[in-house]
Amino acid sequence: MNNRLRVLRAERAWSQQELADRLDVSRQSVNAIETGKYDPSLPLAFRIADVFGLAIEEIFLRD
Amino acid sequence: MNAPRPRSAWKRFCRISPDWVFGAMLVLVPLVIARDWLWPASDGDGSDPRTLALLFAITLGCGIVAAIASRFDRRMIEDFHYRLMANGAIVGIVAMMTVVIVFDVLVGDVDALTGKDIILVLTTGWAIGYFYHRLRGLDA
Questions:
Q1: What's the gap in Å between the CA of B110 and the closest CA on chain A?
Q2: I need a labelling partner for B82 at 20 to 30 A (CA). Which of B55, B93, B132, B140 fits?
Q3: pLDDT (tens digit, 9 = 90+) per residue, A4-46?
Q4: Out of A35, A36, A41, whose CB is closest to B79?
Q5: In order of start, what are the domains of chain A with their CATH numbers?
Q6: Is B74 near chain A, with CB under 8 Å?
Q7: pLDDT of residue B43
């Protein structure tokens, strides 16, 4: 699964640590999602969507 | 509504459900361990029934405690690290079983492996699995 997390984060000029703090996860988790090493759980995907004010399908894309 | 996705060839031909595999493990492995007690050898050289009973009781108790503790872990640790640990544990268990078989084939004396050796192999395999998935990703 692909995602637009890095682009969305860059648009807001947030560091990985800032985003991680907003999501209440570690920076390693954010980095793993951005690099495609980890597909987040559904609850975390909802939290990400809430943080960016977007729908999940606007952030996570099918391969 | 989307049409159902076609099942992969592996899923189509592999009819063995994990429930059957783990159910068999739950029943057969204790039976194999307790075989000396259930079907005593003529020379009487078998495992002590009290030791086997203690082993089963400890396994049952520790298994339930570990299951409850893992639920606590899942709540306290973030999902990414929990999944790394879980994937690493699978690697550790498979590595341990493989090492025992390879050791038996190469050395021909699996009894030479002590409990500490097994724990060492399991822990090392767990750590290898953790870092493999940490570096390569959870889908690797």
A1: 38
A2: B55
A3: 999 999 999 999 999 999 999 999 999 999 999 999 999 999 9
A4: A41
A5: 2-61 (1.10.260.40)
A6: no
A7: 58
Per-residue CA distances from B120 to B44, B55, B95, B106, B112 (Å): 33, 20, 11, 19, 14
Tell me which chain A residue has its CA closest to the CA of residue B84: A38
Pair of tokens at residue B107: 């050395």
Report chain B residues whose CB lies below 8 A from the CB of A41: 79
pLDDT means per 10 residues, chain B with 140 residues, are 65 78 88 76 65 86 93 88 95 95 91 91 96 91
Its ipTM equals 0.85
Closest CA to B134 of B81, B92, B94, B89: B81
Q: Exposed, middle or buried by CB within 10 Å (0-12, 13-18, 19+), for A40?
A: buried
Contact residues, chain A to chain B, C-beta under 8 Å: 25-26, 28-29, 32, 35-41, 43-44
